[in-house]
Design brief:
- This protein has a domain of 43 residues.
- Helix content is 65%, strand content 0%.
- It contains three helices and no strands.
- The longest helix has 33 residues.
Amino acid sequence: MALAPNTRTAPFGAITTLNLINMFEGAVKSVSDWNAKRKTHNILSSLTDRELADIGLSRGDLHDMPTKF
């Protein structure tokens, strides 16, 4: 018994719509990741040298972090 090939095409504009949605989701994820990194950097910058040492970091480690995320 042979299977019939699937020859149905996508409705007009479906691929474009999917690509736009994927692009939008990528942009939202990029902004979300950037904001999380920014918040983390700000919180770590507000800690004292002693508090940073407790978690295994130094002030110099914060300066080595990229400024643009």
